[in-house]
């Protein structure tokens, strides 16, 4: 009985490697997005703390104008960082979408070859079963001929 050999195995291996590479690149993009999200949360947290400081500094009584001006400048810098991070996340979201699409395409290419391999393996199995049945029929026929012939 012949063993099945898928002639396109090297192509399948290359496509599986490409799929794995695209999966890794997508994971990297997701990790980068997580980092940006954490930075954004840190900036927003700092802005919240700064708002609390500004509220306390603006209460009735003596006002430290220099401190208020300094906190406003710092808040302006934080808001600029926040806007920059949001732009980076938007750009990264587009890149994530491109990488996700590339991974879907690579996965489709692998599935096509796997399906082809399955069909060819099934065809091979059916053909081998047919050959085996034919061989057994010939053996049975020879046995019958020997028993009938004197």
What is the compact description of this entry?
With 150 residues, the protein is mainly α. 89% of the residues lie in helices and 0% in strands. The chain is rod-shaped.
Which percent range fits the helix content? over 70%
Write down how many β-strands occur, each being a DSSP E stretch of 2 or more residues. Answer: 0
Domains (count): 1
Total helical elements: 2
Keyphrases for this structure?
150 residues, Helix Hairpins, mainly alpha
Would you mind describing this structure in some detail?
By secondary structure, this protein is mainly α. The protein has one domain (9-148): Helix Hairpins (Orthogonal Bundle). The protein is 89% helix and 0% strand. The chain has two helices and no strands. The two termini are 34 Å apart. The model has no long low-confidence stretch (mean pLDDT 92).
Could you give the topology of this structure?
Layout: H1 9-57, H2 65-148
């Amino acid at each position: 009985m012949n063993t099945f050999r898928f002639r396109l195995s090297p192509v399948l291996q290359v496509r599986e490697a490409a799929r794995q590479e695209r999966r890794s690149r997508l994971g990297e993009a997701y990790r980068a997005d997580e980092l940006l999200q954490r930075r954004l949360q840190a900036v927003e947290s700092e802005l919240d703390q700064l708002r609390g400081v500004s509220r306390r500094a603006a209460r009735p009584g003596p006002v430290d104008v220099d401190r208020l001006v300094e906190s406003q400048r710092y808040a302006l810098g934080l808001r600029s960082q926040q806007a920059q991070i949001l732009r980076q996340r938007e750009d990264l979201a587009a890149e994530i979408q491109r990488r996700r699409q590339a991974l879907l395409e690579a996965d489709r290419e692998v599935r096509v070859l796997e399906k082809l391999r399955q069909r060819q393996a099934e065809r091979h199995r059916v053909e081998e079963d047919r050959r085996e049945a034919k061989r057994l029929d010939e053996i049975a026929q020879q046995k019958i001929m020997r028993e009938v012939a004197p």
